[in-house]
Amino acid sequence: MENKKAVIVTIVVLLLIFTPLTVISAFIKVGKNPLDENPGHDFKYKDALWFYDSNNKFLSSYSCDTKLCDLSAPIIDDDTYGINYYKDGALKQIEVIDEKYAFLTDGAVIHLYGVDSGGVIQTYKSVKNYNSHLENDAYIIQNNNDLWGVLGIGNTLKIILPFDYDFIGISNKINEEGIIRSDKFIVLKDNKWFLVDNANSALTKKMDAPIIDYTNEYIFVKESERIKIYNYEGLEYLQNYIINDFVILDNYIAIITNNELMIYNNLNNLPIKNIVISSGSKVTLEKNNNVINIKVNDIVIDTIA
């Protein structure tokens, strides 16, 4: 009896030792860790993208279909039309949005992915945010029919502009918080260019050539390499001038012709400054407290109080 008891005890001890090892071995064989499927909480791990909140709590994982699988980077196509857009270095990936949404590139496809829900919400072709942040959490998006729209992607999803346009862009306008304004959009539809607001209401007359910039009163159009200025109703200004370039700062507009720099704060009135410059000069307006510096080739040549 004592020998039998000893054998039974030995068997039990061996079972206690080898059973966990067998389980662990089984996990290892199928590529899983019994304590944690992603022990290092890496973003990319075992052909998947892994999402965690700010407290390192697991949210979800996306199983990649291709080797080209990562957070999406935006595109910028505004150079095609000469639009004065916001420029900020090399394009970088769009970060996870409020721990709820992410744009994921998997092969040639871009997914809007629900980080908290763990599922693909929609599939798109391109995303544009000017490598920065837009007001109203706006993202300019191209669908798989090559049409552009605008989504607000923050705590919730909101359609700002429907997918009706052949192009959508925003001029380089920054608000007080340093965020790109998205109260106006340059749009192209049926070969016509115009401005719409963020309620999708047309603000201007439709133009045949691209709108490359705007203020609250005027639009700047580039037609056959010539810049023209109109108000929102389509009235053209400075028709007798060949405008080589322009600079906008607040309510001030610097108009550059071959050898003249004219500063306006209202195109219905005479310029407040007329300055002779050399052809090809670089002109900038720079605000310094309550003074605007007029710079030509990086040298201050005049000021506006």
Would you tell me the structural class of the helices and strands?
mainly beta
Strand content: 35-45%
Give the helix level as a range of percent: under 10%
Rg, please? Answer: 29 Å
Q: Which H/E pattern describes the elements?
A: HEEEEEEEEEEEEEEEEEEEEEEEE
The end-to-end span amounts to 108 Å
Alpha plus pi helix count: 1
Counted beta strands: 24
Uncertain runs: 11-15, 21-35
Mean pLDDT: 89
Quick recap:
This protein is mainly β and 305 residues long. The chain contains one helix and 24 strands.
Structural description of this entry:
By secondary structure, the protein is mainly beta. Helices cover 9% and strands 41% of the residues. It is built from one helix and 24 strands. Strands 3-4-5-6 form a four-stranded antiparallel β-sheet, with no helix packed on it. It has a four-stranded antiparallel β-sheet with strand order 7-8-9-10, with no helix packed on it. β14 and β15 form a beta hairpin. The radius of gyration is 29 Å and the shape is elongated. The termini are far apart. About 7% of the residues have low confidence.
Describe this protein with a few key phrases.
mainly beta, 9% helix, four-stranded antiparallel beta sheet, 1 helix, 305 residues, 41% strand
